[in-house]
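tokens incoming
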């Protein structure tokens, strides 16, 4: 019997989404704000600001919330309550102020609260605050920012302001991003002129870059419905595609605040391989005696570490590593390189040269001294290097039966003395302050919310922070997923995933399945932790009566190099897609309540490509799909993504990158959703797919549906609630076989940090 959903079902599903889930368990994410000396730190627990001092083992309110609320109410004339303090951009440890002072903005005014004196006063004559995209110097005396493509600085009091560069030209400017995926998006998000640069430790110099995009071809996006009601607006974006000879190039620059000198790094312009390359530079030495930069070749198969002399601009290559496929500096694209340059000049270097991902130690001049870690597992994150004790703390995967579970480990820099600090069934998402000294451990499973504790170097508990209760979440209908292991389509490789049971689960019923996908190869999808980038969407679908699956097939990161390389040369992810089919069929054999004759699929970006690919190459299995912002033709996508993850495009490999050759196979129901102003995955991708589907003259029952959202970028910001509701409606209509209720989702509140930044 078809399931008929009501407004109450949609309202319950809405509460499962990330911004609402965060309200039901507000103390589940401890995001530290480190102090300058690295010892105490602060974080928010629900509506409270908390101060932690590991040295004394204390945890307390960072200030008197009740007294501040009363004082701010009186001083501002606005009613303020302690459990909802309107503290914008709170600044602790303000220069020249006592440690108990906190500065913040509220009601369009800057304020200073002294916890000791109990006074709340307006801040006057202190100069403009540090704005979005601006960078304060370590001593907080200067603020660097971009203006008209040049780099400027102003004194913190606002009395001095001057340019450090003055020769920027259109499409050849300093400190910015390549236009592709940013030029239209950033202004839409209120971030029009972000500066990418790094201050030297002594606050005297900046390292930044200059990007040359003058010779690049343009793509055009049309804003059909501008907010002012005027005629449509054309947005032109410099956007090369894979194989183009013309690519963006870049040079490194050292800018001296005192002398206003601009030192250009030697070697001339080099191809800007990806936006991530712009932040792969570090001042090294206590005073910034040098800068170390990473350079990756255009094809991604060579990675070099170079030392830049900030005084002369001379560049010396220290380490060069090459491989048959891509050479990465970390396990995940978005994760900062697992590289440390020690005060001695020694270099800690991460490499997959042995087929896994381990640390190696090099001399200051680039000579290999030896490996630090080894085995059939990988280092996921470097936490802390104690240079006096010659030890390094790190997160490792592959030491547990579940290869994705992170454990805290320690090893001597000479490779001896390996110790597992944790040895349990919890996933440890640990951090350490920049100067080390202790660990902030956030340990969880899919059904246990993150327990946050401060640990010493031997794993001893220094401070208990949070132990969240899931009762409110459960009362709203939430139930944790089942973590499962099955076998890939090759019949031998173990793969892992998550299975959510429908709300009100009845084992005597049969439930349609939704595969909630992101295929990689940059991140993995099915985390063993309590929350990640995708949390909320599968839970909402479960509230609508679907069984939901998330899976990491072959070709995704976090395992061995061989496991990841299944996607190299095949961004169509054929192996991973076969694995999804095999896994869901196996789950159907384990659980008779799974109706594997009714399988839908949905995903965003790479998941959008994968969704369409599933319906086009496995029409006998997937019958319904909603593809959001899918790059259906990788041959016109960002060059680095294709050239580094796939390799050279040839006539024989092009069909593995493009969905259009398979359009004649469509038999199910497919909805394509795109943002009109998506400058990352251009909406042209879906238009090409629709064009090919029309020409394919497919079966009359295989009409494609398309929805273009006006005025939004790749993530549908501001209108994602509408995209979500339309996705739900489509799956309900074609998998449940009933009309959805006339329910409208409210615009989403601000997303919590764990729903914005993928975990590493």
């Amino acid at each position: 019997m078809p399931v008929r959903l009501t407004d109450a079902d949609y309202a319950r599903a809405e509460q499962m989404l990330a911004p609402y889930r965060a309200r039901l368990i507000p103390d589940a994410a401890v995001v530290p704000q480190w102090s300058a000396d690295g010892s105490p730190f602060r974080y928010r627990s629900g509506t409270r600001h908390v101060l932690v001092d590991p040295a004394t083992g204390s945890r307390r309110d960072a200030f008197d919330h009740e007294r501040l609320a009363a004082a701010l109410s009186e001083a501002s004339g606005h009613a303020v309550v302690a459990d909802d303090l309107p503290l914008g951009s709170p600044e602790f440890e303000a220069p020249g102020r006592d440690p108990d002072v906190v500065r913040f903005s509220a009601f369009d005014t800057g304020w200073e609260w002294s916890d000791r004196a109990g006074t709340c006063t307006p801040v006057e004559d202190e100069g403009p605050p540090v704005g979005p995209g601006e960078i304060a110097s370590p001593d907080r005396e200067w603020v660097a920012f971009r203006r008209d493509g040049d780099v400027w600085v102003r004194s913190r009091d606002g009395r001095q302001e001057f340019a450090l560069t003055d020769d920027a030209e259109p499409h050849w400017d300093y400190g910015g991003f390549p236009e592709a995926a940013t030029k239209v998006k950033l202004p839409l998000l209120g971030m029009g002129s972000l500066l990418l640069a790094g201050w030297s430790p002594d606050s005297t110099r900046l390292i930044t870059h200059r990007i040359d995009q003058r010779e690049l071809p343009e793509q055009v996006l049309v804003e059909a419905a501008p907010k002012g009601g005027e005629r449509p607006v054309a947005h032109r974006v410099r956007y090369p595609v894979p194989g183009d000879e013309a690519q963006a190039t870049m040079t490194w620059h050292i800018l001296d605040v005192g002398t206003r000198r601009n030192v250009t790094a030697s070697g001339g312009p080099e191809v800007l391989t990806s936006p991530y390359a712009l932040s792969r530079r570090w001042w090294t030495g206590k005073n910034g005696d040098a800068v170390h930069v990473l350079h990756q070749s255009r094809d991604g198969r060579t990675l070099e570490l170079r030392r830049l002399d900030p005084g002369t601009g001379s560049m010396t290559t220290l380490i060069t590593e090459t491989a048959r496929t891509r050479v990465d500096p970390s396990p995940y694209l978005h994760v900062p390189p697992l590289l440390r340059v020690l005060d001695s000049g020694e270099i800690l270097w991460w490499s997959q040269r042995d087929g896994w991902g381990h640390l190696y130690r090099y001399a200051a001049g680039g000579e290999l001294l030896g490996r630090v870690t080894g085995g059939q597992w990988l280092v996921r994150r470097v936490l802390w290097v104690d240079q006096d004790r010659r030890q390094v703390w790190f997160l490792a995967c592959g030491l547990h039966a579940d290869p994705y579970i992170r454990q805290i480990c320690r090893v001597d820099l000479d490779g001896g003395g390996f110790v597992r600090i944790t040895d349990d069934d919890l996933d440890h998402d640990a951090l350490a302050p920049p100067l080390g000294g202790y660990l902030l451990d956030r340990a969880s499973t899919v059904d246990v919310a993150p327990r946050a504790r401060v640990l010493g170097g031997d794993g001893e508990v220094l401070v208990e922070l949070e132990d969240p209760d899931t009762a409110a979440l459960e009362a709203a209908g939430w139930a944790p997923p089942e973590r499962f292991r099955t076998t890939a389509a090759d019949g031998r490789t173990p793969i892992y995933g998550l299975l959510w049971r429908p709300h009100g689960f009845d084992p005597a019923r049969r439930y349609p399945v939704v595969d909630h996908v992101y295929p990689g190869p940059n991140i993995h999808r099915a985390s063993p932790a309590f929350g990640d980038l995708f949390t909320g969407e599968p839970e909402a679908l479960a509230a609508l009566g679907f069984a939901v699956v998330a899976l990491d097939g072959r070709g995704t990161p976090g395992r061995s190099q061989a496991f990841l390389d299944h996607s190299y040369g095949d961004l169509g992810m054929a192996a991973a897609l076969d694995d999804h089919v095999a896994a869901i069929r196996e789950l159907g054999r384990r659980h008779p309540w799974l109706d594997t004759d009714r399988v839908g699929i949905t995903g965003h970006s790479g998941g959008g490509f994968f969704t369409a690919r599933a319906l086009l190459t496995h029409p006998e299995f997937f019958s319904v799909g909603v593809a959001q912002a899918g790059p259906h033709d990788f041959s016109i996508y960002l060059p680095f993504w294709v050239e580094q993850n796939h390799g050279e495009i040839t006539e024989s490999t092009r069909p593995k990158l493009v969905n259009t050759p398979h359009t004649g196979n469509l038999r199910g129901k497919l909805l394509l959703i795109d943002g009109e102003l998506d400058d990352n995955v251009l909406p042209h991708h879906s238009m090409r797919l629709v064009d090919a589907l029309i020409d394919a003259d497919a079966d009359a029952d295989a009409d494609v549906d398309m929805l273009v959202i006006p005025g939004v970028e790749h993530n549908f910001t501001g209108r994602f609630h509408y995209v979500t509701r339309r996705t739900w409606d489509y799956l309900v209509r074609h998998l449940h076989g009933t009309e959805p209720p006339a329910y409208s989702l409210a615009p989403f509140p601000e997303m919590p940090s764990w729903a914005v930044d993928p975990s590493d």
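note: The first strand starts at residue 33 and ends at 34.
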